[in-house]
Amino acid sequence: MAELRVHLDGLDRHESWRATEEAIAAEPSLAQGSTAYPTVGGTLALLTLASRPVAAMATLRSFAERLNSRGLHGSVVATDAPASRSGPRNLSVPVALAGFTIDPPVSAGPFNDARVPEPRWSAAPAGHAAWLDHVTTLVDAAAAGRIGDCAMVPTHPEHTREAIELELERRSECDLLTYATEVGTESGPEVVRDVVTMGSLGRVTWGTAPRDGDPSGGGVRAAYALEAALRRFAAHLDVGFVGHCAATTSAHLHLTGNSPWRTRRHLWASYVPAPHAVQLLTTDHLDRASDLSGWHVEGVAPQRWLVRHPDLEAWLTQAPDAGLLAQAASDFGAMVLTREEAARNPLHPL
């Protein structure tokens, strides 16, 4: 992947971006896997090139010639920003998973040939706007940030939100990292602070990597911060919960385990994959519970409830006590989606 800055004389950043996108689409070897962003400081073009230098240079020359043939002049140069590096992969940290209410509902499709919903972000407008307000503020307040596919696009207050929305429109997902220091400074490798992944059908995971050498990721403090986020977006969520997993891996896979819940998006507002330390639930969830008298239950929005275990710290480990998990599963009862219940509730397309 080549990271290039395209500067076209006399064009604003959106005109330059559109011209770059057209040149990419017209070049057969770039049409798949290459893209561009209307960033401050010149259009950022991420081009998938052949591994052989001669072929790669030929593609770059052809790309530049396509721009020139349209009467466009300027420069195409390698970006001076270093490639982003992912954060720690084997540290257990608090992470939240949430499902924003989507519009239209998943039953509206579209579906592929196997009747599986096609990827689409589709968070309902109010939730989408509230989330974008929050996440752009988060990244723009950091020392540095990266967004997009593999988090390769440097953030800037003038283009962060636009780049996120562009990714959600193109790929139905977007990765985001914030850093404690400017990326590429002489202070050493950048320190990842926040790790956010937005995925298809309104799924979001976010967490905070360890701070100041704390291998626990802040433990209870970080979990309460994630709980506060669930509270903030409660009115816009079908479900949410806080668990423990590696910050930069596929958190939703870890938090949902082998539960059929993961692929039953139409059941998220009524069932959970398993109990967690903290969860944001609907009234439909609570109606399926066996006994939540041992949990803190608080109404936080119309038909939305925050349910927290009284011993939060006991959950903040890679392997919570088996007795704790068994009691929690008993408390949640029919709220936990089983394979049998999933089979009885298939998705019926409209």
What does this molecule look like?
The structure is a single chain. The protein has 350 residues and is of the alpha+beta class. The protein has two domains: 2-78, Alpha-Beta Plaits (2-Layer Sandwich), CATH 3.30.70; 92-344, no CATH class. The chain contains ten helices and 14 strands. The protein has helices spanning 13-26, 53-69, 125-140, 160-171, 220-232, 251-256, 283-288, 312-315, 322-332, 339-344, and strands at 2-8, 35-37, 43-47, 74-78, 92-100, 144-148, 153-154, 174-179, 192-199, 203-208, 237-246, 278-282, 296-301, 304-308. A hairpin with a 3-residue loop joins strand 9 (192-199) and strand 10 (203-208). It is elongated, with a radius of gyration of 22 Å. Mean pLDDT is 88; it is low at 82-90 and 185-189.
What topology does this entry show?
Layout: E1 2-8, H1 13-26, E2 35-37, E3 43-47, H2 53-69, E4 74-78, E5 92-100, H3 125-140, E6 144-148, E7 153-154, H4 160-171, E8 174-179, E9 192-199, E10 203-208, H5 220-232, E11 237-246, H6 251-256, E12 278-282, H7 283-288, E13 296-301, E14 304-308, H8 312-315, H9 322-332, H10 339-344
Antiparallel strand pairs: 1-3, 1-4, 2-3, 5-10, 5-11, 6-7, 6-8, 8-9, 9-10, 11-12, 12-14, 13-14
Helix pairs in contact: 1-2, 3-4
